[in-house]
Amino acid sequence: MTLAAGTRLGPYEIVSEVGSGGMGEVYRARDTRLGRTVAVKVLPSHLSASPEVRQRFEREAKTISQLSHPHICALYDVGNQDGVEFLVMEYLEGEALSNRLVKGPLAFDQVLRYGLEIADALDRAHRQGVVHRDLKPANIMLTKSGVKLLDFGLAKMVAPAAARSGASLTTLPTQTGRDLTAEGTILGTFQYMAPEQLEGRDADARSDIFAFGAVLYEMATGKKAFSGRSQASLISSIMTSEPAPASTVVPTAPPAFDRVVRTCLAKDPDDRWQTAHDIGVQLRWIQDGATSAAPVSVGPRRRTAALFLPWLLAALAAALLAGVLLRDWRRSSLRAAVTRFLVLAPEKTMFTPPGELSSAQMALSPDGRTLAFVANPGGARPLLWIRPLDSLTAVPLPGTEDALHPFWSPDGRSLGFFTPTSLKRVEASGGTPQRLCDAVAGRGGSWSSQGVIVFSQSSPTPLFRVQDTGGESQPATEFDVARAEDRHRFPFFLPDGKRFLFWARSTKRENTGIYVASLDSRKARLVVNSESMGQYAGGYLLTVQQGMLVAYPFDEVSVQLRGNPVRVAEGVLTGNPPGYAPFSVSGSNVLAYSTPSAKSRQLAWFDRSGRRVGTVGEAGDYSTPRLSPDGKRIAVALREESKTNTDIWVSDSTRGAWSRLTFDPAAERAPLWSPDGSRIVFTSGTAGVLDLYEKPASGSGEPRLAVRSASDKFPTDWTRDGRYLVYHTFGASSTWDIWVAPTDGGKPFALLASKFTEAQGQVSPDGRWIAYASDESGRFEIYVTQFPQKRGRWQISTAGGSQPWWRGDGKELVYLGPEQTLMSVAVAADDAFQASVPTALFKANFPAVVPAYWG
Prior knowledge:
By secondary structure, the chain is mainly beta. Among the domains are: 8-90, 2-Layer Sandwich (Phosphorylase Kinase, domain 1), CATH 3.30.200.20; 94-158 and 174-287, Transferase(Phosphotransferase), domain 1; 600-708, Neuraminidase, CATH 2.120.10; 750-855, TolB, C-terminal domain (Neuraminidase). The protein is 11% helix and 38% strand. The chain has a six-stranded antiparallel beta sheet with strand order 1-2-3-4-6-5, covered by helices on one side. Strands 14-13-12-38-37 form a five-stranded mixed beta sheet, with no helix packed on it. Helix 3 (108-127) runs antiparallel to helix 5. It is globular, with a radius of gyration of 29 Å. The two termini are 54 Å apart. The model is unreliable at 154-188, 290-341, 353-357 and 847-855 (pLDDT under 50).
């Protein structure tokens, strides 16, 4: 059945036919309610009588509805009118890849760009259990915003006991046509089908990887990977032959690309890349310039890899500082000798800085002889410490409480560091720190030989600069709108003291990486894509890729990579905070880096006197634990051993029998229970910005976007009546503000927003009051105001405080006070709010007095 222009399917008015295929006819239509153009896909009338086809059509709707990704065509609606079943999808303007390939191969940089986008989209689908089963150029649209994968109509939800299709070569339909497509027992298009599909065996994500390899080959060469004069000869080609290497057809295709395609097209699924993410990693290496040799493997490395680097390597763990000493490579062409050593952390301290979501923070002096680091004494606020590497003693620097991200002056006599509200400097020999300027939760600084400090803040801002004597800070970089940047962080000056590297985050993943800028200009250019910051020394640019600390040969004059990266160390985690990697390099070719202990924290129960009365499960790398409303379960962010990011896990509150709730490769953290305990909200960086997602606590279903905005956000409370979700996010003044999102779909609104930080909002059980932490007084204190409309304000703490919590009956507030002491305040709130004088309960080994969930 062909629909005429003007036909209405519900609120959708048909404008024109776009095309048709075996599983549906596609029309351009207008959504009369929203006034937007959409695509409507209709099940053809000649197939509507088939229950199997109708089931497949319904499956397509359910499948697409679970996929949300910038490179997957979005599903808006599903409908049925007068027996006509239809889908309403995003209308795409562009050109099908199949039509573009008629004109010839793509430029190789386009092959890599489109390949990375396809890999990212497939990775998302596969992680949600969705296999496309019919990936081909005709199902890939080229738009202004990149590729879009179309037609998951042949997709199949992968289940543990998925039934086999039962098809075999004897049941293949015999239909002619340019692409030899057919609708039948075997689903897919022959040129791109994996051998196991042709044999009628189950298709899984690796079948899509085979098709992806064929698409990559065709984009690069303009030729199909497999061909035949008949179905039989085509099938024989797929089952037995290999395409000619792309590099022999197109000289611009490097041998590394041949390896990527060859592995995709392996006949045995076990011999292929096992995930689309793996392919993306390989394509990224090629794009970054690793074209003269095989790409870096994502598998295990040999332990000798670090021997090629001329540095002293110092590795921090939860309680240890380990190192490797290598002879100066510039004085000898022979392999350098290696000496490894261990250094204990200062007594009764940990290399854990403020906030349980952060990685160890350190800075090597320019001469490589002294290490500055943040250490957290038990029961006290964290301090900066100085440790000469030829000494067994580390010395704390008084007055550096709550220090963050230290960095050295070029002469090695002073240190710059951040507090939660400012940038400061202090002499390495000690003395009173000097405040230089405002800086909210700084995220890295670098000190130029020209007397200028460039630094970043936790807020979504570019970099700033200030004289090393102090004063008003000024912008040092600017966001590139076209690159969709929202963070500039962790600058590092090159030896000329004028140009500096920094890490930029973009909502477009291909633009996230290490950039170079100058004190003479706010403009910047990309040096290399990377998930973390970069630093330079001795002709190498160091950064962390996929949990590996790597070193790129680097020309500091042209600021260009000069070759393939060398792996230095594994298990170096990134992302806490975003863009940070725990390593530091000096101009004298000394390198320190940190690897975490996977069992660094123990969940435990304490009574009001501070006596430990029980534990939950084994020790692990836990953060942001939350108890369910009935007290029977715990949700927590957990980083598994060998993993680089955290996922949300759920356990009973006594035995520690854990089950994993989230599976996205991005970090998920800060879980929050719904009032009835049936759902969990958490923050995830899957879309670049940290947004809020919701998922059933049972683990069924897929995460649903709850709150999205341009700034990072962290959930802190869900009111008992279920009406409001409370979170803090960056406001216009570049500080944390407390926002409220109505759960009925209403527009989120700012409850507490000022030039100061307001965070950690906790609503009272009766829903009338909200407690929160603010630094308005110059340090964090606990305040209470009315909710959901702010009226009145009462200060609860008297000597500093963070992390407020209400007792279940609303008659007591507890918070973390000075010297890591858990404080208690009795409250009464009949007609007016009243609070008692705070009293100490016990000293707790909790994160320091800094608002939690900082990004």
